[in-house]
C-alpha cells in the first residue's frame, strides 16, 4: 500500500511539474525596456557606431542594467527593438527575448527561463525519483528473470524492458539534474557558463552569485513550504538581479570603507548601495564611486550617469 501511494504521489508531481514547464509562457522584458518611437527613429537615422550607442545610453539611463557586450556597449536586440535586461537573451527558436534565459529545451518545446526554471528543476527531480522508484520495485523481478524464477511467458520480457528503461533514464536524468543543481548553487544559467556575464569594468563568471543559501532562494523563494510544489515562488521580477559586485552582502567580509572584499583590489570600485532598495532604479548617480573613477569621468560631456559610460575597446 505504501509503495502504491508513493508511486501515485511521484507520478502526480511529475505530471504537474511537466505541465507547468511546458505551458508556462516565458516572460518577456517589460515595456520600459522597449525603445520609444522617437528613439527607434533616431537609432535608424544614426550610422552604426558611437552615435547609435549615444541613443541607447540615453534610452537606458534609468534602466536597471549592469551587463554589457564584449566591447562594453549597451546590450540591444535589433529584432525585438529593446534594451536587453541583465541575463536576458534572444531565443532564435521562439524569436523573442527571454528573461534570464537558460536554454531552449526541445523535450518540452519551450524556453526555460525565469518564469519556469523552478518547474523545470522539479520536473527533473520528480522524473528522476519516479525512474528510481520503478527500477527499485522492478529489481526483484529482474533478478528472478535472470535466475529463471519467472514463468515462461511474454510478461518477463516486459519486466526486462521496464527495468532497463528506468535504469537508463535514471542515469541520464541524474547527470542533468546534478548539473542544474550546481547551476542553482552558483546562481548561473547554462548560457552564462559558456559565456560569462560582462559587467561595466570586467568579466565576472560569479557576478550574480550571492552565496549558496541566497542563490537557492533566488530560484525557490523564501517560503520553504512551496519549494517542492510546482508553484511559482522565485524572487524578483526577472528584469533586475542582485549581484555580488554592487550588494553589501552581510555574509561576506567587507572593507572599512564599506566596499566588498571582492572589489577592493580593483581600480574601479562598485557602489555598496543595495541593488533594489524600495524598487528604486539601479543606475542613479551616487557619491560612492571611487575618486579614480570620478576623475576619469569628470571631463566627459553628455554622460551624467557614470554607470552607462561606454568603455574604450582595447
From TrEMBL:
The chain crosses the membrane at residues 6-25, 119-137, 157-179. Keywords: Acyltransferase, Membrane, Transferase, Transmembrane, Transmembrane helix. It is found in: Membrane. Pfam families: DHHC (PF01529). GO terms for cellular component: membrane. Residues 74-193 form the Palmitoyltransferase DHHC domain. Its main location: membrane. It comes from the Eukaryota. The keyword Acyltransferase applies. Residues 252-264, 280-293 have a biased composition (Polar residues). One of its GO terms (molecular function) is protein-cysteine S-palmitoyltransferase activity. InterPro entries: Palmitoyltrfase_DHHC (IPR001594), PFA4/ZDH16/20/ERF2-like (IPR039859). Residues 252-314 are annotated as: Disordered. It catalyses: L-cysteinyl-[protein] + hexadecanoyl-CoA = S-hexadecanoyl-L-cysteinyl-[protein] + CoA. Its EC number is 2.3.1.225. It is a multi-pass membrane protein. Belongs to the DHHC palmitoyltransferase family. The DHHC domain is required for palmitoyltransferase activity. This is Palmitoyltransferase. The lineage of its organism: Eukaryota, Metazoa, Chordata, Craniata, Vertebrata.
Amino acid at each position: 500500500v505504501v509503495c502504491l501511494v508513493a508511486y501515485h504521489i511521484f507520478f502526480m508531481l511529475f505530471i504537474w511539474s511537466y505541465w507547468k514547464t511546458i505551458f508556462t509562457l516565458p516572460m518577456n522584458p517589460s515595456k520600459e525596456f522597449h525603445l520609444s518611437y522617437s528613439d527607434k527613429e533616431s537609432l535608424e537615422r544614426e550610422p552604426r557606431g558611437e552615435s547609435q550607442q549615444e541613443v541607447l545610453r540615453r534610452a537606458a539611463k534609468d534602466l536597471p542594467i549592469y551587463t554589457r557586450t564584449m566591447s562594453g556597449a549597451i546590450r540591444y536586440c535589433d529584432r525585438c527593438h529593446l534594451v536587453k535586461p541583465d541575463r536576458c537573451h534572444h531565443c532564435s527558436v521562439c524569436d523573442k527575448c527571454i528573461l534570464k534565459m537558460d536554454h531552449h529545451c526541445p523535450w518540452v518545446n519551450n524556453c526555460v527561463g525565469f518564469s519556469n526554471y523552478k518547474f523545470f528543476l522539479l520536473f527533473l527531480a520528480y522524473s528522476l525519483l519516479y525512474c528510481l522508484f520503478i527500477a527499485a520495485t522492478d529489481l526483484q523481478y529482474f533478478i528472478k528473470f535472470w535466475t529463471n524464477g519467472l514463468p515462461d511467458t511474454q510478461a518477463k520480457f516486459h519486466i526486462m524492458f521496464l527495468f532497463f528503461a528506468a535504469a537508463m533514464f535514471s542515469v541520464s536524468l541524474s547527470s542533468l539534474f546534478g548539473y542544474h543543481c550546481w547551476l542553482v548553487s552558483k546562481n548561473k544559467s547554462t548560457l552564462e557558463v559558456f559565456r560569462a556575464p560582462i559587467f561595466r569594468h570586467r568579466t565576472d563568471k560569479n557576478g550574480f552569485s550571492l552565496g549558496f543559501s541566497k542563490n537557492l532562494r533566488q530560484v525557490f523563494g523564501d517560503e520553504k513550504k512551496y519549494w517542492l510544489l510546482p508553484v511559482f515562488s522565485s524572487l524578483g521580477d526577472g528584469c533586475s538581479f542582485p549581484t555580488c559586485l554592487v550588494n553589501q552582502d552581510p555574509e561576506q567580509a567587507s572593507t572599512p570603507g564599506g566596499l566588498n572584499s571582492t572589489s577592493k583590489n580593483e581600480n574601479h570600485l562598485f557602489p555598496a548601495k543595495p541593488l533594489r532598495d524600495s524598487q528604486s532604479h539601479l543606475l542613479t548617480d551616487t557619491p560612492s564611486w571611487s575618486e579614480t573613477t570620478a576623475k576619469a569621468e569628470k571631463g566627459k560631456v553628455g554622460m551624467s550617469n557614470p554607470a552607462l559610460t561606454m568603455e574604450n575597446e582595447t
